[in-house]
Amino acid sequence: LADMQERVARERELGAAARADFAAQLALERKRAEEVAAAARSRAQAERHAMCRGLAAQLADIAAEATEVRRSTQPLLPRSLLREWLSLFSSGVGLGEDRLTVHGPADEGAEAQPEEGAVAIEPSSLASSADRLLAASELDSYLLGRAEWQPAALEAAAFPESVASGVDPTLLRPASEEQGCAVTGRMVLQLLEAAAPPKRPPPKPPPGAMLKLAVLGRPFSSKSEHAQRLADKFGLKVLTPFSLVQSAVALAAREITTPADGGGDQAPAEMAGAAFQFVVELGGRASAALQEGSVVPDDVVAALVVAAIHEVDPVSYHGFVLDSYPETAAQAKLLEKGLTGYDPEQDKARPKGSKVAPCDDEPPPAAPPAGLDLVLRVDVSDDTARKRALGRRLDPQSGTLYHLEYDPPPDEPGLHERLVAVADAADAEVLRPALASYGDAEAPLAEWLGGLDVLLALDGESSFEGVALEAEKAVGELRERKQQREQERAAEAAKEAEAAEAEAAEGGAEAEKTDASEVPEGKADEEGAAASSGPEAESEAPGEASGGTDGEGEEEKAAEPGEDGTSAEEGGDAQAAVLPPALTPEAAATVLQEWGQVEDGFVSACEAALVKLRDLKHRTLQRSAATRSEFVALLRTPDRRPEIVAAAQRRFNAMPTALRFEEEGKAELHATVEEMQQKIWAASDEKRVMAEQMLTGFAEDGWLAQHALRLVLAILQLSQAEAHRYVRTCTVLRLYTSLCAGGPIDLKLPELSPPKLPEAVELAVPPIDFGGRKEGVAEVKGRGKDGAFGTLSDSLASVIAAYSEPVAVPATQLTEESSDEERLVAEWTGTLATAVEGERCKLRRRQAALAHYGCGVLEELRSHAEKLQDELDKMLGDLVSKETAALSALATLMREAAEAGDELPHALTLDGEAVVVDESLLLLPPPPPPAPPPVEEATDSLRFNVSQLAALGGQLKKAASGHLIRATTLSALLEQLAAGSFDAAAPPLPAMWRPLPPSAFSRLAALFAAGEPPLVAWPALVASLAPVARPTAAVVSEALGHAARVLREDAAEKAAVEAAEAAEATATAGAAGAAGAAVTGSLISRPT
Fold this sequence. Notes:
By secondary structure, the chain is mostly helical. It contains 31 helices and 13 strands. The strands form 4 sheets. The protein has a 5-stranded parallel beta sheet with strand order 2-3-1-4-8, with helices on both faces.
């Protein structure tokens, strides 16, 4: 018994030690995982920091550029420029070093005039990504009617009242006939779909009633156990990617060593023919990857999983469940593509129509199908996964698996010594990256599966039984819904079959009543041949297409809808239904080639013209900035005013002091000031005349008219491109409809009527009337403004008038005897007429839009130039006014000094609009400082102040014999001072002393009295009444020493002054004939 107890105790000690080791290992793994997570967070933070720094740099760049533009051009930013910057910022493209890049020739005057009738668009230089992005944005705004091309914005840009515009503003809104442009859009979309590579037919889906499940989760989340339990309960087949890869590799190895055609082992019973060869090929690829030490490619694993799904026997199993697959979003997409054919990347690459001819009635993209019915994700934390993995212990003798925390081993003798850790995926070096990989892939995978609406998350932290019951409930509900849908589909199929049979019977009865003589002989033979092979041939077609007797069943499976209710054939290759029956693929390719030339030429022309317009707007800003900088530089050019002021000040101060107070001296000083003013006015007039000449040159240099011509040409080139597009589009439409109708369509198409390009236009702003020296200002303004506006209006109005009449449709009368060919031609003729009319209305609308847009651009240019001229003129006027005020202030200061007889001690200058007194530069010695003000002593109601003590001491000194005074005399004196009259401003006693009775003064005298008769030392009395602290002996000694030093220094300074005065008097007495000058010199040189 003791031995048994000892062994049990040892088992307990071993168990405790194992649990302690488990806790230590778990803590270590937690620490390492936290370090890895911290490093990942640090990397993510660094990436976010770099991204934020980039965004902040772009925002700062935009802010700096906006400040510079507002400083150099105008107070407000142009909206178009701000839209460009925001477009670049949202696309992650910087502004670049040259913000206002000007494309095209450097010499603006060297632009060649295009030939009439040709699309002469200057090719744009779109080298940088920013230029290409802005060009595409401008083109989209123009074609889609956004930003400044919106009808509301265009309507706001009206023509001047003086211009008789032939453009109807109602054309800016789309007309109802413009819906015919949808014919062009549908044509282009059909041609693009026909020319695109054909879509791969969707794979054969599993039967509709089959359950298609997947169970996912972190390592050690019990997902495999849940998958097996679901398989056992619902009769599903478990598919594990690892097992499928192993089987494929084994098949590939066996096929290499013993080929099937060489008498080796045959393929598995459930796999035959092409499927077997496909799996062998995939196994070879997987084996090659494993031998190289890399992972098996995702496409190989997905293809093996899809092949295994298709090999699931619907008789033996009710579906399948994928164990731990897919693990990433990429694997999920490959699986979806293999099951349903859905590939989002391929769908993005499919043609979406043309931006030149959009198809407005294009159906929206269908919702993506779902190859899986339900994906169960068992969610556990990383810590739980580590705890489950590291706590497992295996008894190699019995094969029992324990867990030190969830399922601890019993205290059996020898058991703990036999237990070993399970070293598979629980290895820390394997578990740690597996958890990290799952964490990285979890969010993207959940987003993809959530988009398919098949993901269901389960709380794996709860008990295994609770999670299993929740999963079984979800799968059970799914099975009921699928069974119900199968029943509904069967009922609908039965109804459709009955309706088809009834319709066939009715059609047969009507055919028997038809007179056989009315049917042509050749046609009757054809119908008879078709009837002889009708139902039988149709019933055999599916079997032939799918192979053997199983074809009918497979055809039914392919037609079964998926989980979302859509048929598997939807989204497949509908190329046969894209083109009209009479249009062959070769003819479609020809029409598409013709349309490609139309679209490419139009897009290139529009893009170049729009880029040219944008560059011309930028040149306007550059011209404004350069003009302002040049004008400001002229105004800030140094002139002669500082020299004139300095010379006048020197003359002003050179006058002797004695003459400043004479009338003649004052008159001379005023004349100096007047002469200074005249010279400064002359210098200011010189600069003002130069500035006025510069402003006049800006208004009359012809740049505005040349720039307006370039703007008008760019807009008319857009109009020309639109006219060419309209005519060539109508040609392509007639070719398309003729091919579809099986014969030519007699419809007269419009002829090309491009706008007339002017050689010159007039646009000017009125020059400034400087004092009435300019004449004919109003005439210049009206003539220049109407010139450019009228030219643009007339050119675009002529294009609109050229296409004012709708296309004439030939009258086609169809009768009952008309053949099918005639009816087809008539139908396509009407379609062509509708399309051409829609294109005509679009052309007229865009011509009107160009007219109003051009009006707004020209008005913006003219207004900008006029505002700039007014601003510079105001700047000049303000500067002249402020300089005049500064000169007047300087003259006033000097005149006041002249009247007062003063000199100008400090240097005076005119700094633009201000008078600057430079106190750091003294022209004369400074005057002596003023005497300090007298100290005013405050009175106190109880204590004596200095004045009161001085007066009291004087009276005591008079009444006393030496330093002693009788006590009675002191009392009487104080009583007399308290009772007598006095000056309220200087009372002899403090306020609280005056109402005291005589007895109080007697007691005060008695306090200081001594001897017989009583005598008082009045100095001691005065010192005791002083409101100061008594000095110590040391303080008194130091004060006496300081007084002695001061007396000695004063005596020495006095002696020096007397010696200097004596020497000066001697020198003065020896000078003859210069008495006034000598006196002045002595006053200046004497120290203060």
